[in-house]
Design brief:
- The protein is mostly helical and about 400 residues long.
- It is built from 19 helices and three strands.
């Protein structure tokens, strides 16, 4: 089983370049790098509009990437004012202002994937670290409310610009993931990210139901979005947010348990909601997309989810489904879990026996062989390098840990 971890800070290097204020290519870029948010009211002037429209890489990201030898990591299309505001984690009002001035600068679906890959709660912790002091462009991160409103803005922009959700089947591009073995759609990233609200995931399911079943690769492990959701990391149990985070994780699993058929037709409905809002003279980004109450999954849908989890050897997810559902229709899954636990128990006994044997061997050598133990141990080390170490055995392919 893979230990829960932050997915997005082990990936590509496009988001890790240090950018100096001297790299800025415009007044806008300078203000963004200096985090001078109050002075950004100049965006309401003609000069501000020219800076936004210029598409001149306001932060100098391309220049810095070439200096660092990373010119292939950040695509040239990221030279917009909109992406610059995302890159420095500008306040939502600043981002919304730039969007209103140049809505065509949003790059779908990459800008959405980029924002989904940010975990603001983790960035907040790192802001006070020594590493953060080496990154002058990153002086803040988004609040929970800003993050939700930004994701909602990007989804609304997507709906306005596209007749269907086919682009939401795209996976994270190379400049985001680097050499990491990751293949994840926006939906899968939203499922894993613990800071993404459930209704954002619900809308992503609605905009592209096919992504609910699209195979992912998670650090080399073949899996599916519902498993990725179950593997989403939690804060420590002592945290005040632990229970809420645990409920959110299971809500995401539940949303992905529902059949994709429930979500079909939802895209057209959301587009009509936006058109009506614009026609009524409302500022649409001030009115989040609707996420209607979901139904409870049927036993058939839960059984299907259990079958998929068993196929991927995600037994902890199966265990959690069965803990929450006592239906007779899941008896086959209970029997399979019982057989797995019995086998796993026998394997653990083997591992414990191997540990005890090694300890007894080491103690005997220490007491009876003195210096002679060193070459003997060296030989045994060679043997252990060839023979699989039972004490290090793990469940092959599983990424979900105990959920209760």
């Amino acid at each position: 089983m893979l230990a829960p971890q932050s997915l997005f800070h082990r990936t590509g290097q496009g988001d890790e370049a240090t950018v100096q204020v001297s790299d800025a290519n415009s007044h806008l870029g300078q203000l963004l790098l200096e985090a001078d948010w109050e002075e950004l009211n100049y965006l309401s002037t003609d000069e501000g509009q020219r800076d936004v429209d210029a598409n001149n890489d306001p932060l100098g990201l391309a220049t810095q990437a070439k200096k660092d030898g990373r010119h292939a990591k950040l695509p040239s299309g990221k030279g917009t004012a909109f992406f610059a505001s995302l890159f420095v984690r500008a306040p939502f009002d600043v981002i919304a202002k730039i969007y209103a001035m140049a809505p065509s600068q949003v790059d779908h679906p990459e800008d959405l994937m980029y924002v989904l890959s940010v975990i603001p709660s983790e960035e907040k912790v790192r802001l006070g670290s020594e590493q953060a002091k080496k990154v002058p462009y990153r002086t803040r991160t988004w609040t929970a409310d800003e993050y939700y409103r930004l994701l909602d803005l990007l989804l609304q922009s997507f709906i306005k610009e596209h007749e269907n959700g086919s682009k939401l089947l795209h996976v994270m591009p190379e400049w985001m993931v680097g050499e990491t073995d990751l293949l994840m759609t926006p939906l899968a990233v939203a499922a894993y990210n613990p800071d993404v609200p459930a209704n954002i995931l619900q809308n992503l399911c609605a905009l592209q139901p096919m992504a609910m079943e699209k195979e992912c690769r998670f650090f080399g492990h073949k899996t599916i979005p519902i498993v990725v959701a179950a593997a989403s990391p939690l804060p420590p149990p002592s945290s005040a947010n632990f229970d809420a985070a645990k409920r959110l994780r299971w809500e995401k699993v539940t949303l992905l348990t529902l059949h994709k058929g429930w979500y079909h037709g939802y895209f057209d409905k959301q587009r009509e909601v936006l058109k009506e809002a614009v026609a009524a003279g409302k500022h649409d980004i001030e009115h989040p997309l609707e996420a209607p109450p979901r139904p409870e999954p049927t036993i058939g849908q839960i059984k299907k989810a259990c079958d998929e989890a068993m196929e991927l050897k995600e037994w902890e997810l199966v265990r959690e489904f069965l803990r929450k559902n006592a239906a007779e229709e899941l008896e086959q899954a209970r029997e399979a879990l019982a057989r797995h636990d019995e086998t796993a128990g026998a394997e653990e006994e083997k591992r414990q026996y191997a540990r005890e044997q090694k300890k007894a061997r080491d103690e005997w050598m220490h007491n009876n062989m003195g210096l002679v133990m060193y070459p003997v141990n060296a030989f045994l080390d060679v043997v252990s390098a060839v023979v699989p170490d039972l004490t290090k055995h793990d469940e092959e392919g599983a990424i979900v840990g105990p959920m209760s």
